[in-house]
Design brief:
Helices cover about 0% and strands about 50% of the residues. The protein contains no helices and eleven strands. The strands form two sheets. Strands 2, 4, 5, 6, 9, 10 and 11 form a seven-stranded mixed β-sheet that branches. The protein has a four-stranded antiparallel β-sheet with strand order 1-3-8-7, with no helix packed on it.
Length: about 120
């Protein structure tokens, strides 16, 4: 099972980036939860956003109104559209996935993780 992130980079404050996460070798069940997380240097990893198989989403307060999480089920790819980026959004961003029945949040014990993609906002 592999989750492969892409789309990170350097951008000026106020700019946008779209992260992608391809899920390889894993069959997402009819009930899944996938999410984005980030970790800045010297800080703990934090949940950014999550989405379930029904399209229900939840976001950390720090990104509400600026970030949008989505899934292309046909491509089994997760996306994170990030707009109005701020320097405090600078971090390594990771995607994660699990099959679950119930509420989908970033606090769940995700077993599958990507290697991360760096986002730098100056």
């Amino acid at each position: 099972v592999q989750l492969v992130e892409s789309g990170g980079g350097s951008v000026q404050a106020g700019g946008s980036l779209r992260l992608s996460c391809a899920v390889l070798g894993y069959t997402i069940g009819s009930n899944y939860c996938v999410g984005w997380f980030r970790q800045a240097p010297g800080k703990e990893r934090e949940g950014v956003a999550a989405i379930d198989s029904y399209g229900n989403t939840n976001y950390d307060d720090s990104v509400k109104g600026r970030f949008t999480i989505s899934v292309d089920n046909a491509k089994i790819t997760l996306y994170l559209q990030m707009n109005s980026l701020k320097p405090e959004d600078t971090a390594m961003y990771y995607c994660a996935a699990l099959n679950v029945i119930g509420v989908c949040t970033t606090s769940l014990p995700f077993p599958y993780w990507g290697q991360g993609t760096q986002v730098t906002v100056s």
